[in-house]
Amino acid sequence: MSETETAPPGVDPAVPSPARLYDFFLGGTHNFEADRDLAEQLRARIPDFVDAVLANRGFHVRAAAWMASHGIRQFLDIGSGLPTANNTHETVQALDPGARVVYVDNDPIVGAHASELLAGNTSTALVVADMRDPEAVLASPVLRSTIDLSEPVGLLMTAVWHFVPDEQDPWGLVATYLAALAPGSYLALSHGTLDRIPPDQIQAGRDAYARSSANV
Length: 216
What we know:
Shape: globular
CATH superfamily of the domain at 71-190: Vaccinia Virus protein VP39
Radius of gyration: 17 Å
Mean pLDDT: 88
Number of strands: 5
């Protein structure tokens, strides 16, 4: 793709982003050369990295399907990245075409491509916002017009909170989201761990994401 032609306002194609890296690893096309270069470096320096990404996606899809099979009809996907193939709305709407889904991400390119990726799907919406501001996310008119918070919600937070440092209280942020949900709601959360990871691979991951918009 031509970065100069497709980079939307507010997006620097020279700076990799976690959403576009994730898109690349999942076989998507909404990524730039800088994302692909960094992805290949991660693949080379951390041999299990792609397997971890795919394992997380598998968990995410299974969790969403399990919730849908247990009566959940509305879903909030926090830190979603690009809603590309085999994502939340495709999974749950295959089980119930009336299921409603709201994606939340702060990457401008997610917002830029959402209308294309979700074209014609009136039961799915995107909120471009920072998940570290749950009050703003939960008050979004887009979210409120799609999801009824007085009814049970399937809350999905997969492979995203490790981008939030301890001093920003990720535990409290998660608790704020949970407190807003009706009884009968479900939470699916996954989190990266450094347990049993060789130190050189840990440093490689930190170095890589320090060059990205996550700046961790």
